[in-house]
Amino acid sequence: MKFLSIQSAVAYGHVGNSAAVFPLQRIGVEVMPVYTVNFSNHTGYGAWRGPLISPDDVRDVITGVEERGAFADTDVILSGYQGSEGIGDVILDAVARVKAANPDAVYSCDPVMGNAKSGCFVAPAIPILLREKVVPAADIITPNQFELGFLTDTEPSDLDSTLASVDAARAMGPSTVLVTSVERPDRPVLDDGRDTIEMLAVDDDGAWIVQTPHIPMKANGSGDVTAALFTAHYRATGSAADALAKTVSSVYDLLQLTYDSGRRELQLVEAQEFYAHPREQFAVTRVR
Length: 288
Known about the structure:
Layout: E1 2-10, H1 17-26, E2 30-39, H2 55-67, E3 76-79, H3 85-101, E4 106-109, E5 114-115, E6 119-120, H4 125-137, E7 140-141, H5 145-152, H6 159-171, E8 176-182, E9 196-203, E10 206-213, H7 222-237, H8 240-261, H9 272-276, E11 284-286
């Protein structure tokens, strides 16, 4: 399997391509990373160095890959945080060119806009771009619950309303939706007092949900890992339930290892066995 992954990159830590590429490689995926920024670290630190890469330069890199004949056997185009409208247009152009060379290729978009705690943290034009142009061109999207509501102008909360929001998103174009960080008001508390959190996957064959203990930490880059692994597993198996089980297991173990380490950055390399051999320790339940 081969990915063209158009995302940010950092030297220190793991977000964007710096989070997605290694887990994909560890499960046997060939990745062609194209960078949209080359920063010292993610912006959550409040200070960083390095350049935004201009849309023209990003387009040039993609064109160079195309000139090597790589598009004909590219299976997936993956995108995450889109820093400007110009980058969005470059990504859409790349999607069209890859699909022209390989009609079986799919576009997986992580529509990064924000989260329930921080609100929307991208430029005002980005949500409009995502809603009106990018998401309709995608085959797979991987929003968190907040982003799902923003995209569809709905307020997903319980399972029924979240499923209705997913249906609204699928009506926009993508056939497959993974909703991360689902926090239902009626979600159960575990016997040891821990809260829970869920992921929901929906495609033409049905809808599945999986529940894990909630790990109390902010983990920049975990969404990038989630989007990459789910897309790869789904592309390999065609089963949303199977992809959900494998992805949730790997990401949970990555987060638990990071939490136990006491470090701020994902322990991405240390967790590598969890990508290659996910334990699938959480039950996936069909909800539709």
